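*** Residues and shapes ***
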Amino acid sequence: MFETENEALSRKVASLQSDLDRFLGTDRPVQLPPGTKGNVVAVDPKYGFVILDIGENQGVLERAQMLVNRDGKLIGKVQITQVEPNRSIANVLQDWKQDGIEIMEGDQVIF
């Protein structure tokens, strides 16, 4: 019981710190729980964003960056822009895209 409550409070503290950093204009990287993993469930290549199957319930925070992995190979990086309880929307960071490799449904995101 206490572990579940502690996890929920830890997520709330991290979320509040992220909001405070955003309002103060701090460039500190947003930290997610170690080992956070999810999958790309939809891709919009025209507008350069993806939808992930992880969200607030898994500790995901806006402005966090995650690596995109396919078969053990880094293929890109995304930044979370919107978080819902069980999914997130993230922009594909163009500077991290690998030449000729597009992010696809089923790719894994990791922190």
Notes: The mean pLDDT is 89. The first helix runs from residue 2 to 24. Helices lie at 2-24. The radius of gyration is 14 Å.
